[in-house]
Amino acid sequence: MKISTIRKSIIVIFWLLVWQLGALLISNDIVLAGPYEVCLSLVGLIIKWDFWKTILISLGKIGLGFLVAFLSGVILGILSHMSDFVKDILSPLISVLKSIPVASFVVLLLLWAGGESLSFLIVLLIAFPHIYIGILKGLENTNKDILVMADSYDFSYFEKCIYIYRDALRPTLLASIETSLGLAWKSGVAAEVIALPDYSIGTKIYMSKIYLDTPMLFAWTLVVILLSFIFEKAMMFLVKRAFNVKPCPSKGRVKNEKTASFKEVKNSIKTQEGEAQDIEVIEKINDINVAYGENKVLENVSLELELGQIYTIMAPSGKGKTTLINEISRRTKHSVSMMFQEDRLLEDYDVITNVILGATNITKGECEAIIKKLLPAECIFNPCNNLSGGMKRRVALLRSVLRTSDYLILDEPFSGLDDESKNKCIDFIHEYQKGRTVIIVTHEEDDEKALNAKRLDCI
After folding, report:
1. Which of 5, 128, 444, 452 is 20 to 30 A from 295, comparing alpha carbons?
2. 342: how many CB neighbours lie within 10 A of its CB?
3. Cβ neighbours, 10 Å, residue 378
C-alpha cells in the first residue's frame, strides 16, 4: 500500500473518531448523530427499492442537466471563438448567469417551470457558463505559432481540432468541469429541497428535517457526497481518456501535382520552342518593404530566384532574415514548404505523427524508413517533448522536406546540431531536393559550401 494511501486513511479515521467523540459528548441524536447511527440509517435505506428509485431520478435530472450544459457550453464556446458576433451576443447572458444568486434562479424557475424540472434547469444554468468560459479561454490561449504552422502545412479544421485545439483545451476544460460539477450537485439538491418533487434526494433531506431525524439527514447527505464524487470521477475519467487518445494518420496528405525538376522544366520549354536554347527559369520578387512602426526592417529589396537552385541567406541577427523569407513565402506564386525558426512541433505527439501530418504522397511505412536516416529508430514513436533540442530540429526538417512543394524554405535548420548530425541533414536536403528551389537561413559559411549554394546578398 502506498504511503499516501495510508496517510489519507489515517486522516479519515481521525475525523471519524472526532465526529464520534463529539456525538458521545453531546449525547443527543437530534443535535448530532454519530457515525454509527448514520451507518445504521444508511443500511436501512439501501435495502429499500424507494431509495434506489430516488437515487436514479435525482441522478438522472442532475446528470442530464450537466450533460446538456456541457454540450451547449462546448458548442457555443466554439462558435464564439469562431465569430466575434456570437461572442458579443452571449457576453451579457454569461455575465448574468455568473452573477445572479442561485436563490433567485430557484424562485424564478419554480414560478416559470414548476418543481419537477427545477433541478435539471438549475444545474444547466449553473454549469453552462463555467463550461463555456473554459472552452473559450482554452481556444483563445491556443499557441498562435502552432496555428500558423498548421495553416502552412494545410491542416484541415478537423485536424486542427484533433491535434491542436484539443490539447489546448485540456487544462481549462478539466478545471471548469471539476468546478461546475461540484456546484451542479449542490445547487441541484438545494433546488429539490425547495421544490420538493416526488422521489428526489432533496425531498428526503427536507422530510428528515421535518421529522427531526438527524441520522437520516446525515445519511442522505452522505449519499449526495458519494454520488457527487462518483459522478465527478466518472466524468473526469471519460474526458481525460478522450484527451489521451493520440491518433496517427496512416499516410501523408495526398497531392496530385508533381514538382518537376529544374532540368525537366527547361527541357519542356526547349521542346515547346522547337530548338535547344539556354533558357533560365527565373522568378522575380521586387520592392519588398517591411517596417514595424518607425523601424524599417526591409527597404526596397528585390530578388531574382533561379528555380531549382539552393540559396543561402546570411546576415547578422536583427537584419530581417526571417522577415525576408516570410515575404518570399507570401509573395511567390509557387507552393512553399516552410521550416520555421522555432520547431513548432506538436509536443505531445510522437515523431512519426508530426512528420506524416506535414508530409505528402507518403505512407506511414515509407515515412518511418525515411525518419531513420536522421534519427535513431527508438525515437520514432516517442513524444516530441521527450526529445533533445537537436532531435526536435531534425523532426522539423523532416516534416518540411517531405512535403511536396516548389520552394523549400528553411530557417536556421542546423541550429543546435553537432557536425555529424549537420552533415547528415545536408545530405538529406540534397537527396530530397527533387528540383525544388531551396532557401536556407544560416550563420555558417561552411554550411553554404557544403550545400553548394548561392548567397542572396540582398540584406
Report:
1. 444
2. 14
3. 7
